[in-house]
C-alpha cells in the first residue's frame, strides 16, 4: 500500500500544526513588508524636505530674492477709464461662481458690436483700430516735395501713393505689373503658351522662382526664412518650411465647404481678368476654370504633405532637422536640378549683402522644418518631366501658369478696383466681413508692415512718454524678479529643472518699446532708408519695400548670425510676444504706451502681458 501523505491523517493533528506554521510565516512576511514600506516613506520624506529646503542657485551662485511690492491706489484718469471699460463689459446678473466668463465679459458683445469690415472683434482689435487712427494722422500730412527726404517723409509719401486710387485704376499701373512679371519671368512674353513649343521648361519656370525671391516671394512653394537655431537661440539659421497656400490646410479636404468653392471661383475670376487686362493674349475659353481646378488639386497634395497641427502639438521636435546646405541640396533640390551653388545664388541674389560669401556655402547649417513637404514638393516637380510628351507639355504649362499666378497673387492689393473687388468677395467668404476696411486703414497697415522702424519713429516721437521706456523696464524687472522667486518656490518641479529655468530666465532678452536708435540716431535711420526712392507709384514702391525687407530683415541678420539685440517686431504694434526659440519677449511701443493722463506713463497691460507671455515659453 503506498505511503500516505502527511496531509492525509485521520485525526488532523499534523494539518492543524502545519496551518499554524503557514499563518506564522505569512505574518512575518507582512510585518517585514510593512517595516520596509515605512522605512522607504521616511527616506522619501527626508529627500522631499531636503529638496524643499534647498534653494536653487543660478550658475553664478546668486539666489533671486523676493521683491517687496506695494500696490498704489487706483485714482488716475487712466485707471478710472480702464475700470469703467471693464465694468461696462461685465454682466453682473450672472453669479461668477456659475459662469465667471459670462460674469466678466458677458456684455462685451452688446457694447462692442462687430464692425461690418471685421470677421471678429475683441479688445486687441479695438486697440489696433485706435493705433491705426493715430498712425493715419501721422502719415496723412501734405505730401513732401523733392527727393531729399528723410526716412519718415518717405513713409508719408509712400502712404499717399497707396491712397491714390486714380493711379491704381489707371492702365499704366497694369503696364508696370506686366513689365515686372516679364522681368521675373521673361517667358511670360508668349503667355498663354497655347503652342507647345512656346511652353517654358520646368527649369525656366524655376529660374523665375529665384528672380521672384529678390522681391520677397517664395512663389507659393519654396518657403524659407531666417529663424533662431533651437540649440543656439541667439544664432540665426535658414529655415525651410511648408508653402503658404491659398486656403488653410484642412479646407483642401472638404470640396463642399463654401470657402473651398469660393477659392476656386477666386482663382478662375482673377486669372481670367488678368489674361484680359495684363497678359499678352487672353486665355482660351474655359482655361481659367481648368487652371483653378488644377491649382487646387496640386495644392491639396502639398497641404497633405505639410505637417498637421496635431502632429506638431504631439512632437514639436519634428520641426527640427538640421543639416548642411549641401545635404539639403542632395536630399531635396537636386531632384529639380538645383545644386548647392544654385541655392547660394538663390539667397545671395535676394539678400544683396557683401558679407554673404563668408556665411553662406555648402557647409552652412540649415533647418528643414517640413521634411515631408520638401520631399513631396520636389519629387512632384521632378515627375512633371516624363517620356510622355503630351503629359510633359501639360505639366510644364501648369507650372508656368502657377508661377504667373503666384506673382499676381502678391500684387492684387496694389491694383485697381476690378482686381480688388474679386479679392474682396473671396475675403468676405473667408472672414465673414460684409464690407472692406477703409482704404486709409489698409494703407496704414501696409506702410507700417513694410517700414516698421521709420513709421515707428513717427509714432514714438508723438505718442510715447520720453521716460516711459525706463519706467516700463523697471516694472518688467520687478515682475521678472517675482517670476524667478516663484520658480524657486515651485517644488512641483525637480531641483534640476528649477536650476535650468532660472538660468534660462537670466539669458532672456526683454525688448522694451523700440530700438533706441530710431529716436536717438536720426542719421542711422535715414541711412537705412537712403536707397529708397519713393515715387507716386504704389506698385513700384511695394517692389522697393520688398527688396529692402529682404536685405534688412533677412540678409543682414543672416550675415551677422546673431539675434541678441534684434527685435522681432516694430514699435507700432498692438501685441506682445514670447519667442522661446530666440529667448526674447518684445513689448512694442504701441502695447506699452499709457493713457495720456497717466501719471506713470506706463500701460498696465504690459504688467499683465509680461508674465502671461513668459509662462508660454517657461
From TrEMBL:
**Which CDD domains does the record cross-reference, listed alphabetically?**
M13 (cd08662)
Q: Which Gene3D superfamilies match?
A: Collagenase (Catalytic Domain), Neutral endopeptidase , domain2
Tell me which domain of life the UniProt entry assigns to the organism this sequence originates from.
Answer: Eukaryota
Q: Which UniProt keywords apply?
A: Membrane, Transmembrane, Transmembrane helix
A Gene Ontology biological process noted in the UniProt record is: protein processing
- Please give the InterPro entries that the UniProt record associates with this protein: MetalloPept_cat_dom_sf (IPR024079), Peptidase_M13 (IPR000718), Peptidase_M13_dom_2 (IPR042089), Peptidase_M13_N (IPR008753)
The biased composition feature labelled Polar residues covers 594-609
User: Which Gene Ontology CC terms are recorded?
Assistant: plasma membrane
Residues covered by region (Disordered)? 594-618
**Segments traversing the membrane:** 21-44
Any one GO MF term held by the record is: metalloendopeptidase activity
Q: Which residues form the Peptidase M13 N-terminal domain?
A: 96-514
Q: Which family does it belong to?
A: Belongs to the peptidase M13 family.
List the PANTHER family hit by this protein, alphabetically. Answer: FI17812P1-RELATED (PTHR11733:SF167), ZINC METALLOPROTEASE FAMILY M13 NEPRILYSIN-RELATED (PTHR11733)
According to UniProt, the name of this protein is: Neprilysin
| Taxonomic placement | Eukaryota, Metazoa, Ecdysozoa, Tardigrada, Eutardigrada
Amino acid at each position: 500500500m503506498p505511503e500516505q501523505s502527511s496531509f492525509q491523517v485521520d485525526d488532523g493533528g499534523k494539518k492543524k500544526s502545519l496551518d499554524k506554521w503557514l499563518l506564522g510565516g505569512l505574518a512575518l512576511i507582512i510585518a517585514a513588508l510593512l517595516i520596509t514600506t515605512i522605512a522607504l516613506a521616511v527616506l522619501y520624506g527626508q529627500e522631499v524636505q531636503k529638496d524643499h529646503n534647498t534653494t536653487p542657485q543660478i550658475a553664478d551662485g546668486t539666489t533671486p530674492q523676493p521683491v517687496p511690492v506695494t500696490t498704489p491706489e487706483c485714482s488716475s484718469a487712466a485707471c478710472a477709464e480702464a475700470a469703467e471699460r471693464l465694468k461696462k463689459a461685465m454682466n453682473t446678473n450672472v453669479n461668477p461662481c456659475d459662469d465667471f466668463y459670462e460674469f466678466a465679459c458677458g456684455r462685451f458683445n452688446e457694447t462692442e458690436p462687430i464692425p461690418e469690415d471685421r470677421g471678429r472683434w475683441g479688445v486687441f482689435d479695438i486697440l489696433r483700430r485706435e493705433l491705426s487712427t493715430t498712425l493715419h494722422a501721422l502719415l496723412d500730412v501734405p505730401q513732401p516735395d523733392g527727393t531729399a527726404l528723410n526716412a519718415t517723409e518717405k513713409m508719408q509719401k509712400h502712404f499717399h501713393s497707396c491712397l491714390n486710387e486714380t493711379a491704381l485704376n489707371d492702365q499704366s499701373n497694369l503696364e508696370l505689373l506686366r513689365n515686372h512679371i516679364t522681368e521675373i519671368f521673361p517667358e511670360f512674353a508668349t503667355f498663354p503658351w497655347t503652342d507647345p513649343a512656346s511652353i517654358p521648361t520646368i527649369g525656366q519656370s524655376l529660374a523665375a522662382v529665384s528672380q521672384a525671391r529678390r522681391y520677397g516671394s517664395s512663389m507659393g512653394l519654396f518657403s524659407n526664412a531666417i529663424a533662431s537655431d533651437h540649440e543656439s537661440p541667439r544664432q540665426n539659421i535658414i529655415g525651410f518650411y511648408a508653402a503658404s497656400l491659398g486656403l488653410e490646410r484642412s479646407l483642401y479636404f472638404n470640396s463642399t465647404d463654401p470657402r473651398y468653392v469660393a477659392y476656386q471661383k477666386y482663382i478662375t475670376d482673377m486669372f481670367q481678368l488678368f489674361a484680359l487686362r495684363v497678359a499678352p493674349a487672353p486665355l482660351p475659353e474655359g482655361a481659367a476654370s481648368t487652371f483653378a481646378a488644377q491649382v487646387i488639386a496640386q495644392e491639396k497634395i502639398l497641404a497633405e504633405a505639410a505637417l498637421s497641427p496635431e502632429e506638431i502639438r504631439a512632437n514639436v521636435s519634428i520641426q527640427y532637422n538640421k543639416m548642411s546646405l549641401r545635404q539639403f541640396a542632395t536630399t531635396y533640390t537636386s531632384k529639380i536640378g538645383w545644386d548647392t551653388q544654385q541655392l547660394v545664388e538663390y539667397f545671395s541674389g535676394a539678400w544683396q549683402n557683401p558679407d554673404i560669401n563668408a556665411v553662406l556655402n555648402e557647409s552652412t547649417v540649415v533647418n528643414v522644418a517640413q521634411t515631408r513637404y520638401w520631399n513631396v514638393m520636389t519629387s512632384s516637380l521632378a515627375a512633371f518631366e516624363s517620356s510622355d510628351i503630351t503629359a510633359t507639355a501639360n505639366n510644364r504649362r501648369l507650372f508656368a501658369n502657377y508661377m504667373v499666378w503666384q506673382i499676381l497673387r502678391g500684387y492684387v492689393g496694389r491694383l485697381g478696383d476690378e482686381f480688388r473687388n474679386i479679392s474682396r468677395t473671396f475675403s468676405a467668404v473667408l472672414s465673414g466681413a460684409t464690407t472692406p476696411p477703409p482704404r486709409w486703414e489698409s494703407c496704414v497697415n501696409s506702410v507700417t508692415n513694410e517700414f516698421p522702424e521709420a513709421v515707428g519713429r513717427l509714432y514714438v516721437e508723438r505718442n510715447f512718454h520720453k521716460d516711459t521706456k525706463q519706467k516700463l523696464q523697471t516694472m518688467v524687472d520687478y515682475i521678472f524678479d517675482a517670476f524667478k522667486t516663484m520658480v524657486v518656490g515651485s517644488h512641483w518641479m525637480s531641483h534640476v529643472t528649477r536650476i535650468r529655468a532660472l538660468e534660462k530666465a537670466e539669458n532672456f532678452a526683454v525688448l522694451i518699446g523700440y530700438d533706441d536708435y530710431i529716436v536717438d540716431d536720426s542719421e542711422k535711420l535715414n541711412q537705412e532708408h537712403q536707397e529708397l526712392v519713393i515715387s507716386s507709384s504704389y506698385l513700384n514702391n511695394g517692389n522697393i519695400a520688398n527688396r529692402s525687407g529682404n536685405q534688412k530683415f533677412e540678409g543682414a541678420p543672416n550675415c551677422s548670425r546673431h539675434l541678441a539685440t534684434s527685435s522681432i517686431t516694430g514699435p507700432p504694434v498692438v501685441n506682445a510676444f514670447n519667442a522661446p526659440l530666440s529667448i526674447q519677449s518684445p513689448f512694442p511701443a504701441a502695447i506699452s504706451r499709457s493713457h495720456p493722463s497717466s501719471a506713470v506713463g506706463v500701460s498696465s497691460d504690459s504688467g499683465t502681458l509680461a508674465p502671461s507671455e513668459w509662462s508660454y515659453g517657461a
